[in-house]
Model the fold of this input.
Amino acid sequence: MGIKIKKLRLLRGFKQDYMALQIGISQTGFSKIETGETNITLERALTIVDVFNMTLSEFLDWEEEKEA
Done:
C-alpha cells in the first residue's frame, strides 16, 4: 500500500510534507507509511485517499498504467 501511495503522490505532484499536513501527521510519519515501516488504520487510509480525491475502492483498483 505504501508504494502505491508514493506513486500516486508523485504523480499528483504532492510533497510528503503536504500530504502529512493534510492527514494530520508529521512528515517523518508519512514517510514511514510510504516505506512500509508503519501500518496504517482504515481511517488513516480513507483520509489519505481523500487527499487524492479517490474512494478507497478506486485507490485499491488503481494501476499506474491507467494514469499514464
Notes: The longest helix spans residues 2-12. The chain has a mean pLDDT of 93. The two ends are 19 Å apart (CA to CA). DSSP finds six helices and no strands in the chain.
